[in-house]
Every structure is written in C-alpha cells, then in structure tokens.
Amino acid sequence: MKKHPDKQLLKELTTFQRVLLITDGTVTELLEQYLNESIKVVKLYENIEEDLNQLSDLQQELMPADERVFLKRKTLLQGQNTLNNWLYAESVVIINNLEVNFRTDLLNSQEPIGKLWAKYRCETYKVIVGAGEELASELATHFNISANDKMIARTYTVSSNNKIIMIITEKFPYQFFRGE
Predict the structure, then answer these.
(1) Arithmetic mean of pLDDT, 136-153
(2) Model-level pTM?
(3) Which residues of 37-70 are buried (b: 16+ CB within 10 A; e: fewer)?
(4) How far apart are the first and last CA of the chain?
(5) Is pLDDT above 60 for 27?
(6) In degrees, to the nearest 5, what angle opens at C-alpha 114 toward C-alphas 110 and 120?
(7) Which of 92, 57, 62 is nearest to 74 (CA)?
(8) Comparing C-alpha atoms, which of 125, 126, 145 is closest to residue 135?
(9) Which of 94, 135, 165, 93 is nearest to 1 (CA)?
(10) Residue ranges in 13-155 assigned as alpha helix (H)
(11) Which of 37, 39, 85, 123 would you label with 16, given CA atoms 20 to 30 Å apart?
C-alpha cells in the first residue's frame, strides 16, 4: 500500500470512491448520505492485545513506542435496513490514550467510532498513511464477491491531544459505489 493513492487508480474510481479513499471526515456519515440508509457496526472481532506481532508491519511501525496494550477490532459497516455490508474496518486502538467514557462506550456499544468522536466531542487529527488496492481474499464472503475481486483500501492514523489514539484500515469492494 502506497502513502498516496496511485494516480491511475484514482482515474479508475468514481467520485464517491475517491471521496471515501481520501476523506478525513467520518466515513459512516458519508455512507449514510450516499446510501440514504442508517449504518450500524457489526463487530467481527474485538480483543485487548499485548502482542505486537498481532499487528501488520505498517501498524507496528505506527504504534507509539511506549505502548504495548491495544484494542484490536474488526468490524463491518452494514446497512440498518438492507443488511448489506458496505465497508470493512480494522482498528488498532491505543486504549490508554482514550478518555475513560469513550473507551467504555467503544467496548460496550455498537456505535461507529466516528459517532463516538462526535458524542464525546473528541478533537481528532487524521493522517492517511497508505492507500491502494488489494485482493478481497478472506473478506470476499462478507461482501458476496470473489476472493480475486479487488478491494480499495486505506490506512490512517487518528491523533488527539498530540497522541496517536487509533490506526484504522478501511476496505470496500472496487465494484461498490460505481453508479453515479
């Protein structure tokens, strides 16, 4: 995954796909407006970890050096009515850098992270650190596509109070959001 999206890839994408790839806003709200449907979170995996080997090379590189405890979370953003899965997200949350109530809600609710940022008025700064395309592989079953179909992916850090609080990777099938 490259830091900035490849120009050729950007040419192939629709306007909304490009917006999803480069936005520093809340993807959940963008999806709700585009799809005219409320979005809910489906948690596939969530566990507090201490083994940095559970992270990708990029995630390890971005992890603050003094942190060893993190929440690893895998979710789908799903349409409330259609039950269509629209986006896969893998989050690494440095839980010791989160405000206590935010952390509690994150662990115990089904609210998307972006909505929790707004709820707690958490000032954040996001930096895209990787973007590109990859094969769907094992994620294909969540989207009813082939393992050889392309996914659009991006990884970004979220900082608050000058500390990285999250490293998030989001992926969606290339063939989604093609109708403009």
Answers:
(1) 96
(2) 0.86
(3) bebbbeeeeeeeeeeeeebeeebeebbeeebeeb
(4) 26
(5) yes
(6) 90
(7) 92
(8) 145
(9) 135
(10) 15-22, 27-35, 57-62, 100-108, 113-119, 140-143
(11) 123
- The answer for residues whose C-beta is within 8 angstroms of residue 12's C-beta and 6 or more apart is none
CB contact at 8 A, 143 and 120: no
CB 163 within 8 A of CB 59: no
Its sign, for the CA torsion 64, 56, 113, 179, is positive
CA 40 to chain centre: 14
In 100-114, which positions are buried (b, 16+ CB within 10 angstroms) versus exposed (e)? eebbebbeeeeebbb
Residues with Cβ within 8 Å of residue 46, at least 6 apart in sequence: 71, 72, 73, 74, 107
pLDDT of 2 reads: 56
Selected from 3.30.450.20, 3.90.1800.10, 3.90.1300.10, 3.40.1410.10, the CATH number assigned to the domain covering 7-173 reads 3.40.1410.10
Q: Where are the domains of the chain?
A: 7-173
pLDDT for residue 100 is more than 60:
yes
